[in-house]
């Protein structure tokens, strides 16, 4: 039976259902509800932007985008976004999805914390970032009606979400601080970890191995 939230149909293909069940069964309600909202808000923002992402690929990107924050998916060195991207691409490849579509989903997840650039790329990539920015940062809320926002939050609640997602970020990469160089993730560590000092881009240049 087709389920719609705020006028957005939730993909119900075998691939989408499997992705949903994987995230629901192996993460926690915070990540699952957030990921579900990312799909819905990404779809609503896509309407406002007049772009048309493939719903199934957008759904998989949304479902997998934060897997790298939690076990058993988080790694020990690379950026958490890349962890999620690699799991998503492997998931799609193992189910016969064309490599080009897997690459699109990989890129959507890998860039979802990188401001601006995703909006210049394909609709799936742009809509993934738009969904994340709406749910986490509250950006461009004015493009979505109060009724639609309330419908999304009713379907996938966000109790104390601001504090809980920040703690999820902290737990996801506190033990791999070098992976946050040059990213917004360094802000999380600087805010919550006493003594943390972000790697400074200028210092890297001035202290590089070049002799001049």
Number of helices: 10
Structural class by helix and strand composition: mainly alpha
Strand order in space, largest sheet: 1-2
Main β-sheet, in a few words?
A: 2 strands, antiparallel
Kindly report the oligomeric state of this protein.
Answer: single chain
Alpha-carbon distance between the two ends: 67 Å
What's the CATH topology label?
Answer: Hypothetical protein af1432
The helix/strand order is EEHHHHHHHHHH
* Portion in strands: under 5%
The amount of helix comes to 55-70%
What is the alpha-carbon Rg in Å?
A: 18 Å
| Strand segment tally | 2
Taken from the alpha-carbon principal axes, the silhouette is globular
Low-confidence stretches: none
Structurally, how many domains make up the residues?
1
**Mean pLDDT reading:** 97
The first-level CATH class name: Mainly Alpha
Tell me the CATH architecture.
Answer: Orthogonal Bundle
């Amino acid at each position: 039976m087709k389920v719609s939230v705020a006028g957005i149909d939730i993909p119900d293909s075998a691939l989408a259902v499997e992705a949903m069940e994987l995230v629901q069964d192996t993460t926690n309600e915070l990540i699952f509800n957030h990921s579900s909202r990312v799909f819905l808000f990404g779809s609503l923002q896509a309407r406002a932007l007049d772009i048309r992402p493939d719903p199934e690929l957008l759904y998989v990107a949304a479902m997998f985008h934060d897997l790298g924050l939690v076990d058993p998916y988080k790694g020990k060195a690379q950026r958490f976004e890349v962890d999620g991207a690699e799991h998503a691409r492997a998931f799609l490849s193992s189910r016969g999805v064309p490599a080009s579509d897997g690459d699109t989903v990989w890129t959507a997840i890998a860039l979802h914390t990188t401001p601006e650039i995703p909006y210049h790329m394909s609709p799936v990539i742009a809509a993934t970032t738009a969904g994340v920015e709406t749910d986490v940062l509250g950006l461009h809320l004015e493009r979505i009606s109060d009724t639609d926002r309330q419908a999304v939050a009713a379907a996938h609640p966000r109790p104390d979400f601001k504090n809980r997602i920040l703690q999820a970020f902290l737990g996801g990469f506190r033990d791999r601080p070098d992976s946050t160089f040059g990213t917004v993730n360094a802000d999380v560590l600087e805010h919550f970890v006493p003594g943390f000092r972000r790697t400074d881009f200028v210092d890297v240049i001035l202290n590089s191995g070049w002799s001049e």
